[in-house]
Amino acid sequence: MRKSLVFLAVLVIAAALIAGCTTPAKPAPQPTPATQPPTIVVTTVATPAIPAQLARNWVITSMGIQDGSAVINPAAKITLTIATGGTLSGNGGCNNYNGPFTLSGTTTPKGQGISVGPLVSTKMYCTDYSSQETTYLNILQKAMAYNVDGNQLSITASTGDVLIYQTPVSLVTPVQNPMPG
Asked: What is the three-class DSSP state of 144?
């Protein structure tokens, strides 16, 4: 009987060891649902159409600095061309410049809402016109409103500075009288 007990003890120990060494069966892997890429919703804000009376060529006639307390009549010809595609370009008296603009569609006390820039320009240095050109481009990039009255365009900056333009055909060119011979 002693042999039977030893045999039974060995059998119980062996069963315990076998049971302890086995790991429970892993559940079969469940297929993971395919993740859909996030849906991107693009919302566009309707940009107001560029009015025909704005989208033309302009020549500056004066710059009102500090809300009009100082007026600069530019010595150089400064031009602005506003395109229907939301871009503008021109010459600041020395360098060519261009950049985007956006109409906000809102009306402000100074006119219709507009933002300009960032502007890029060529980098030539013109002794006579550099300061004037820098002032002009700084005002233009701070534009917040515009107003078209016939052949005149005014652009008002957030600083209160104002740029006044005329269409080239409306500018008065003095007529030279021929010298009597």
From this structure: strand
